[in-house]
Amino acid sequence: MERELKGSAQEQYVRMLSKSLDSVQRMRIQMGNRIKAFKKNHGEDYGELVDALTTRMWDQADLMERNIAADLAKAVAALPVTKWLEQVKGIGARLSGPLAGVAAPIGKYRTVSAFWSSMGYGVVTVCVECVNLHLVGKERRRFLDRQTQRRWDIYKTSDNFEARVERVGDDPDRVVAFIREAMVEHRAEEYEKSEKQLCSCEAPVLKKSAPNLKYYGGLILPYDPYLKSMCWRIAGQFVRQGEFYREWYDRYKERYQLSCPDLPIGHIDNRARRAMVKLFLSHLWEMWRKAEGLPAGRTYLQEQLGEKYSENHTFIEPPYADTFDKKPKQP
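RE: above sequence
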């Protein structure tokens, strides 16, 4: 009897299957590369043996991958937002599962901008001279607080820290006091280290940019690289077979070709893909919140500009926008 999982447990189940499928795929690829390299160097002596080993290991890895993919498809079908995702051409369970499972719960993203930023599709301010993030005021303090908290969360589960706690003894009061003192000391050190990684130029030359790994040297990424890679795979699928989002990709690409004629073709393609993925993520955020019964408010520009928004901007409705508005048929 299959156990029915709902809510956050269901989302964690999808997340576990998604990460497991990704691990099996990487293992299969690595295994194939090792066998290929060995066969290239020693194929004359071990040719038949390697062929038999390859067939046996490949079949086992393929069977494992297929089983996990089948379980993932069933788990994804139980998510509320799947009712909309399955209508969007170009994204199946292998892509929507990791995206919905790892990004969940949708309730923690109050705005679509927060949803973009969690996947590396936000915008950051960078200093051109020192090539570091430029943050000021409350935003800088919040960023540093998050950095130090994440570093402490990682350190307190390390073997080194656990060994230090064991040396304190069995007295609960002494252990608690030691942990508190260690936390304050560790957070102060990491706060100072993280602050050195941010822009401190007296007269910084600033620019807006998409998040890049080179801006986060020595810092913990504020977005999930796994989700960003999944979004890039989704972009490839939309370009190849996505109907609605392929049309917008072509529009964005034509717009960039006219506005930036000196850019290489590859840069224009990347910009068009990024714009297309951000459009898809904004639609996913809206439809997902509707599926969960959460308010899907207007964008920042719509709230600020009000009626003037429609004069200079075009709001793009999600495809199949009435998916969760339809009432079920009466039996």
